[in-house]
Amino acid sequence: MSFSALAGIRPWVMPEIPSIGTIAPRATLYPFPNMESAYEQKREDSPWYFSLNGEWEFLLKNSPDAVKTEETQPGSTLKNSRTIPVPANWTMEDTGDYPWYTNVRMPFNNMPPDVPEENPTGIYRRNFTLPSGWKKRRTVIHFDGVESAFFLFINGKELGFSKD
């Protein structure tokens, strides 16, 4: 299923759509040129590992519906954005949204899978260039800990959606 097929649909509230454009769940593996180097080195030493950890541009919106299409396009300006570290939890980075802790009931009255209209939504953006030797290689982007749901755009193109 592609995003264009989802026009006007909110997949984050649809249990029947856990993800789009993802590979099947599997153990996280890192490629190495040979078995010996895989045993002897850390993932960061692989010639085919590229970390996106670091400083990212971040903009907090009050709901997924508040994200404008142009904000997902390369070169667009994210007015009032700031820089935050990744990995991190935006609620711990003084962004204006705060963590909700509860062990009794959900902090909103909606019944799952419905969510409130006011639902803090972050836009993360980072420019990067893959190493030149990767042109003909299959490249997989791996997210270690996204909470809730996310869409992935690369160069303005919608490539994936997933939720926890």
Share of helix, binned: under 10%
Main beta-sheet annotation: 3 strands, antiparallel
Average residue-wise pLDDT: 88
Multimeric status of the protein: single chain
- Strand order within the widest beta sheet: 1-6-5
**Structural class given helices, strands, pairing?**
mainly beta
Distance between the termini: 19 Å
CATH third-level topology: Jelly Rolls
Proportion of strand residues:
15-25%
Task: Describe the 3D structure.
With 164 residues, the protein is mainly β. It has one domain (3-22, 50-163): Sandwich (Jelly Rolls). It is 4% helix and 20% strand. It has one helix at 35-40; strands spanning 19-20, 54-61, 82-86, 121-125, 149-154, 157-163. The strands form 2 sheets. It has a 3-stranded antiparallel sheet, with no helix packed on it. The longest helix has 6 residues, at 35-40. It starts with 18 loop residues before the first strand and ends with a strand.
Chart the SSEs and their pairings:
Blueprint: E1 19-20, H1 35-40, E2 54-61, E3 82-86, E4 121-125, E5 149-154, E6 157-163
Antiparallel strand pairs: 1-6, 2-3, 2-4, 5-6
Question: What would you say about this model in short?
Answer:
By secondary structure, the chain is mainly β.
Brief descriptors of the model:
three-stranded antiparallel β-sheet; 4% helix; 164 residues; mainly beta; 1 helix; Jelly Rolls
